[in-house]
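User: Good morning. I'm curious how adenosine-5'-triphosphate would be positioned relative to this chain. Could you predict the structure with it bound?
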Amino acid sequence: MTNKISKIAVLTSGGDAPGMNAAIRSVVRTCAYHNVECIGVYRGYQGMIENDFKEMGPRSVKDIINKGGTVLKSARSKEFMTVEGRKQAYENLKNQGVQALVVIGGDGSFTGAEIFNKEFGIPVMGIPGTIDNDIYGTSHTLGYDTALNTVVEAIDKIRDTASSHNRLFFVEVMGRDAGHIALNTGIGAGAEEILIPEEDLGLERLLDSLKRSKESGKSSSIVVVAEGDKIGKNVFELKEYVEENMPEYDVRVSVLGHMQRGGSPSCFDRVLASRLGVKAVESILEGKTNYMVGLLNDKVCLTPLEQAIKGSSEIDKELLRVSDIMTI
Ligand code: ATP
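Assistant: Good morning! Here's the predicted structure, ligand included:
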């Protein structure tokens, strides 16, 4: 391994996701393993601008693998969107002797990292951390698996009350641009219909489906709706629409909201974070830059940051068919 780098900084940026702490731990410990110094940057890019750094060694990341959120805190930094802000950040990193940067975050954070590299030449490596799973170049982002489990558990509880009262529930889950959470939890929790940003089910088909469901003897139903579903109506508007057209239904709404981001990471996310952290640091030490580490076909691999940012992570259309068959 060609090891010219002696100090690496790590930060978490954008929305937090379970597994970020496990990734920080992995980056810090892989640095220690290769005798490279590591510093943590608090509050993402904003902390880089404000000199908010902390030396990190293997023991400073004990007891965090099981914790949700991020011990380094996360932030969205407007100042980093300006050349002056990025220049200040670079000066601060230089003063600290930092020679490379690991960014744990989403595509916005990766865009910032790429621009930063272009302007100042500092090697950057991205680790995908976002519950939405909307990043090209990895089958799973950190936090996605945990979020799926959290949502399925919540819908199971909603189902108990739905079936006791013969109700129809619209459950809104996260996913403004991507339906991965809705599609998978919809199947996992046995939803009647799943509304996602990628596919326009249409209001008529929704009503037809609910009618069929009633006629087939089902007394309660769950419809999982992604925040950005293509029909363009939010869950409350959907409730009104169905109540107007199917007064026989007692309709309720549940918006799961930020609880989906929280909680202890699943075993899958902890292992993924550990693998991605090792690959991120070792890739930097091999002289690589401007890549995102990800998981494809269960192999850890590198995707150029530019592709990860521009590409889209497609839903598996076969899952739509599976969902249709399951709701017979
Ligand atoms: P999430 O998927 O949770 O939204 P994200 O990483 O996409 O995560 P963003 O808010 O889009 O979250 O980006 C995080 C931060 O990255 C921004 O607050 C900003 O500091 C930096 N950033 C994003 N886009 C740019 C850009 N074009 N130039 C410079 N910095 C950027």
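The domain at 7-143+265-310 is CATH 3.40.50.450 (Rossmann fold). The pocket of adenosine-5'-triphosphate is lined by residues 13-15, 45, 76-77, 80-81, 105-109, 111-112, 115, 130 (CB under 6 Å).
Let me know if you'd like a different ligand tried.
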